[in-house]
Design goal:
alpha+beta, Cytochrome p450, about 50% helix
Length: about 450
């Protein structure tokens, strides 16, 4: 039974040829909030010639996520994104998607994530060892370096040395150009047009391809001599489907790049927002310290501590509600037979939803702009808010790296917050909507040794 009618309405009128692109480009987050608040739960709008329908009600979004993947496959509207992820599981459809998901999923199952947890903590401890009381740090830069090291070691099995920097710089170029394309005229250009931005992307992708091809060859040689390793790349190369077929080197490349982007950028940005929010909420930070002292007793966290760090996990969840790195999800396109809210949809309808918009809807989250980790108290059952939280998408197309990211964020926070407070310079920082929802300005913090600050002489 459908309790929420599916009644599409037209959003704001746009300009000829450009549609709503100028308004979306000026401030994507405000534009999406405007569609939600002033137009309705099902709103039509346009990016150039592309017509989209924004869903804002959790019931409709949950139905979309839970629907047949053959009736609601993803649609690619970004040239840069296609160059980056190729034909990975994130854009695949039908039988090809089901096969690839079955081959990729084992590399990020709970048992594998348990094995990666020690690397997450070890890298966080190394970062903390390089910090000192009173030092000033660029928070996003520090989290970027930390999550880069974690994803390189778990994905490729070692630190890669200078090659890791080369790979990261190429990925950063692509991420910046993708963010610019999503907000600009580049989205409307034919694939064959080669702008300076697209030429930069092609050069960066060539670097990525060369580095990962080298790593794949090395893993294949190692497997021939000593068997399969326990890093993600080795797992992808060894995976077989029901017919004994493996992913091709190109397919392994596509999946590895997709997991890199999800495991590095998303987690780095998410951690940055966590520290920003903790710095402005001393009572939340104090409770975090109490939990860490009680659960860990001064030792580093392990994977087995993850479920016991309930307040830490609530902080992560609330930060992802307020600042979901993936602020808008890949659109879906309807096929013949698609239905939402009991209403048949014309084939070819492009549907999108925005975690940013729904996460900040006061109908589901009272005082939606406030940082309140207690919203996620496991003893408080709130089906509406749970259904309205989807930073990793949902249903069968939930991001495969979601658990990896959640465990990584909690363990990194637990490791670093045992030793330091990050006092970020006061002042509100607006988010900037690019590929990820990043801080719009630099977040600088002063490190405060927690042990010193807790001692009588340190107060």
């Amino acid at each position: 039974m459908h309790t929420i009618p599916f009644r599409p309405v037209s959003g704001p009128s746009g300009l000829p040829l450009l549609g709503n692109l100028p308004a979306f480009r000026r401030d994507p987050l405000a534009f999406l909030a405007h569609l939600r608040d002033d137009c309705g739960d099902v709103v039509g709008w346009s990016l150039g010639s592309k017509r989209l329908t924004l869903l804002s009600h959790p019931d409709h979004i949950a139905e979309l996520f839970g629907g047949s993947q053959d009736l609601f496959p993803p649609v690619d509207i970004s040239w840069v994104f296609r160059q980056l992820v190729g034909e990975s599981v994130i854009l695949s459809q039908g039988a090809d998607w089901r096969r690839k998901r079955g081959l990729v999923q084992p590399s990020v199952r709970p048992r594998q994530v348990r094995g990666y947890a020690a690397t997450m903590v070890e890298c966080a401890l190394d970062a903390a060892d390089g910090w000192a009381d009173g030092h000033r740090i660029d928070v996003e830069g520090e989290m970027n370096l930390l999550t880069q090291r974690i994803v390189v070691r778990t994905l490729f099995g070692n630190d890669l040395g200078d090659r890791a920097r080369t790979l990261a710089e190429a990925m950063e170029v692509t991420a910046l150009e993708l963010g610019a394309e999503l907000r600009g005229i580049g989205m409307l250009l034919p694939d064959w047009v080669r702008t300076p931005a697209r030429r930069r992307v092609l050069a960066a992708i060539a670097t990525v391809d060369a580095e990962i091809a080298r790593l794949i060859r090395a893993r294949q040689e190692e497997a021939a001599e000593a068997g399969t390793g326990d890093d993600v790349l080795s797992t992808l190369l060894a995976a077989e489907d029901e017919e004994g077929r493996r992913l091709t080197p190109r397919q392994v490349r596509d999946e590895a790049v997709t997991l890199w982007a999800a495991g590095h950028e998303t987690t780095s940005v998410g951690l940055t927002w966590c520290w920003y929010l903790l710095s402005s909420a001393p009572e939340v930070r104090d409770r975090l310290g109490e939990e860490l002292d009680t659960v860990l007793g001064g030792r580093p966290p392990t994977f087995d501590d993850y479920d016991r760090l309930t307040w830490t996990k609530q902080i992560v969840k609330e930060a992802l509600r307020l600042y979901p790195p993936a602020w808008i999800l890949i659109p879906r396109i309807t096929r013949e037979g698609a239905v939402l809210g009991g209403t048949p949809l014309p084939p070819g309808t492009m549907i999108c939803c925005s975690p940013w918009s729904t996460h900040r809807d006061p109908r589901w989250f009272p005082d939606p702009d406030a940082f309140r980790p207690e919203r996620w108290d496991p003893h408080r059952k709130d089906d509406a808010s749970e259904q309205a939280w989807f930073p990793f998408s949902g249903g069968a197309r939930t991001c495969l790296g979601a658990r990896f990211a959640l465990v990584e964020m909690a363990l990194v926070i637990a490791t670093l917050a045992q030793r330091f407070h990050l006092d970020i310079d006061p002042g509100e920082v607006a988010p900037a909507a690019g590929l990820q929802l990043r801080p719009g300005s630099e977040l600088c913090a002063t490190l405060r040794d927690r042990e010193t600050s807790l001692s009588p002489s340190g107060t």
